[in-house]
Amino acid sequence: MLGKYLEKAWIYPRESREELPASLPWILFETPGGAYSPRWMVQAAIDRVQAKIRMYQNDDFRARHSLIEFVLLCYYCDEALLHNTPIHAVGFGFQQLAANVKQALSTEPNVFDKIFLFHSYEDVKALQVY
């Protein structure tokens, strides 16, 4: 299992850590970085929404729960923002993400009445994509 997830380990002598506060963890995980493309984030968002559509497609959820309207809200929580490809790039942001997701969902089955993307740190916090 370790070989599957560990790419490299840096080992420093204990003496080099003496000046650091005792509250600092002695094991640190480096976050991945480098170049990325907004396409990765767009495709990840489309994949998640399509997974929800497939999940509810053959389930008569609306009738079983006597729902008048069935809405999907996809939100970017703090954890998602820390661990996923950033939404913003040069000339690309939340609005462009929503437009790309909306275009991809135009041919999907009509499972939900509405689908929204929600991002609490944006000026316009929710955008309807279906």
Write structural notes for this entry:
With 130 residues, the protein is of the alpha+beta class. It has one domain. The chain is 35% helix and 12% strand. The chain has 5 helices and 3 strands. Strands 1-2-3 form a 3-stranded mixed sheet. A hairpin with a 6-residue loop joins strand 2 and strand 3 (126-128). Helix 2 packs across helix 5. The radius of gyration is 21 Å and the shape is elongated. The two termini are 41 Å apart. The mean pLDDT is 83.
Layout of strands and helices, then pairs:
Layout: H1 2-5, H2 38-57, H3 61-64, E1 71-76, H4 78-83, H5 94-105, E2 114-119, E3 126-128
Parallel strand pairs: 1-2
Antiparallel strand pairs: 2-3
Order of helices and strands: HHHEHHEE
Q: Looking at the structure, what is the overall shape? A: elongated
Helix content range: 25-40%
> What about the largest sheet?
3 strands, mixed
Write a concise synopsis of the structure shown.
The protein has 130 residues and is of the alpha+beta class.
Comma- or semicolon-separated keywords:
3 strands, alpha+beta, 130 residues, three-stranded mixed β-sheet, 12% strand, 5 helices
